[in-house]
Amino acid sequence: MTSPTRRSLPVVAATARSVALDSIIGRLRNRPVERDVPYVQSYGGGVDSIYILERFLREPQSRPFEPAELVVVMAQTGDEFTDTRDFHRRIVLPDMRRHRVRFLQVARTRTGRESSRVLEDSRAPSDLYIDGDYRLSDEMHEAGTLPTTAGDRVCSQRSKGVPVDRTIRDHLRIDGRFVHAFGFDRDEVSRIGKCEAAIAERNLRRSGVGNSSMKVSVDDPWWLDAPEATAFEIGDYPMLRWDTSRESAIAWLERELGESAPRSCCRFCPFQKPWSDPSVIERWRREPAERIARDLLMEHRALAFNFRVPLFFRQGSLRSFVERAGIEDALDAFRDQVGRREHALWRIRRLYRKAASGRVTARRSTERIATGTEAEMNALLDGHLARGAKLFEANDVRYAFRREREPQGPHTSEEFFVVAPSDADEKVRGSGFEQAWLDAHPDAVAPVGRLLQPSLFGATG
C-alpha cells in the first residue's frame, strides 16, 4: 500500500475524524444516565438549555433524579440581552423556585484569566444577574479587539466554560463522580465531540494520568479506552439521547410555555445575522440605548486599531447595521460616549510572517503616544499627514500610514497612527516584537517620542 500523497492527507484526516466522531456519538446516544451521583447542568439561558431544564421539570420520566437534586450552573458574560433576563423572570425562575432547583449564577472576575465568583447560589432565585462581574466587553474594550467567528469560540470558553468548571470544582466540591449535562442538540456532533475530549482531558489530569500540558483531541480518540476509574466527570447530552433537534425544541417550548424562548447571546455576538434575520435588528432596537452605544464604542475602538475586521466581517460593521435600521437613540448615546472620552494618538505596528505551510501569523504593538481632547489628537494626526504620511479613511476613522503592508512576500509589516479613545491597554502581542521590528526596519531607531513631537509635524497650538 502506498503512502498518502500530500493532497490526500486532508481527506485521510477528515475520514479519521468522521470515524472517531461516529464512535463517540454512538456511545453517547445510547449511554444510560448514571443514577445516585450528582447531576449538574451547564445552563446557557437559551433555547436548548431552557428546553432541557423545563422538560426535566415537566416530564419525570426524562430524568433519573428529583428536581431538588438537580444543580444548574449559569455563567453570566455581563453582556446578555435584557429580554433573556425578562423571559427568565417571567417563566423559568418561578419554575425553579416551585421545584426547589439549586441555581448558581457565576461570573468571571478581573483578577485572573481563570478566576470567577458566585453571584448567587439559591433555591429561590428571583432574578438573572446579566451584568455579571468582569464582562466580556470589558476585556474587548481594554484590548481594542472584537470577538470573531474564527477559532474555537475562545470568548465563550473564557466567559462561560472556565467559570462553570471552576465553580463545579471549587464551590460545589463534588467528591467523586458526577454527571455534567450540556445543551447541544442532536445535530451538533462536532461540538459534542470537542466537549467529550475536553471532559476526558480534565478527567485524566484529575486522575494523575495527564499533566497540565496534555491535549486530548477528537482526531486521536485513544482516550475513549481510558480506564473507568478515571471518569470523574461524565458528559451527558439530553438532546442527543432524546433525538431532539433545535426546531423540535422550539416547537416543544411554544407548546408547553405558550411562547418561544429568546436566543441567549451577547448583544455583539458575531454569530448573529442581522443581514438576513430581522429579529436581530428588533432586539437591538428594544435594548436600552446605552447598552448598544457601549457596543458601538467597543467596535469603534477596535476598528481604529484594525480597520480590516468589523464585527460582522464581510457583511459589515455593527454601526452600519444600526445606522441603516435608524436606531437613533443608540447612535446619539454612542456619539455622546465618544465625545466625553479622553482621546489618544495611537501608534499601531504589525509584523506578518508567512510559514512554509502558508499560514500567516501577525504580531501587534499598540502604543499611546499622546493624550488629550479628540480635536487636539486630530491636530497631531494632521501634522503627521503634512509630513508625508499617507491618508487612509474607513469606518469614519482617519489613519496616517508610515508603512503599508505589502500584498506579496512571506514577511511584511505595517505602521500607522490613528486617533481613538485612550482607555485601552497598551499591548505588545508576540515575544521579541521590538527586536523583530528593528530587524525588519533598521531605520526605525529613533525614539517614538522624538518622532512624534508636535513641532516636527509643524502643528501649532
Account of the protein in words:
This protein is of the alpha/beta class and 461 residues long. The chain has three domains: 9-257, Rossmann fold, CATH 3.40.50; 278-339, no CATH class; 341-457, no CATH class. It contains 16 helices and twelve strands. The chain has helices spanning 9-30, 47-58, 82-99, 136-143, 154-172, 189-207, 238-241, 246-257, 278-286, 289-305, 318-325, 328-340, 374-386, 433-440, 448-451, 454-457; strands at residues 39-42, 70-75, 102-108, 116-122, 178-181, 233-236, 343-354, 360-372, 390-394, 397-403, 411-421, 427-429. The strands form two sheets. The chain has a six-stranded mixed sheet. A six-stranded antiparallel sheet has the order 9-10-11-7-8-12, sandwiched between helices. Helix 6 links the parallel strand 5 (178-181) and strand 6 (233-236). Helix 2 packs across helix 8, helix 4 (136-143) runs parallel beside helix 10 (289-305) and helix 10 (289-305) packs across helix 12. The longest helix has 22 residues, at 9-30.
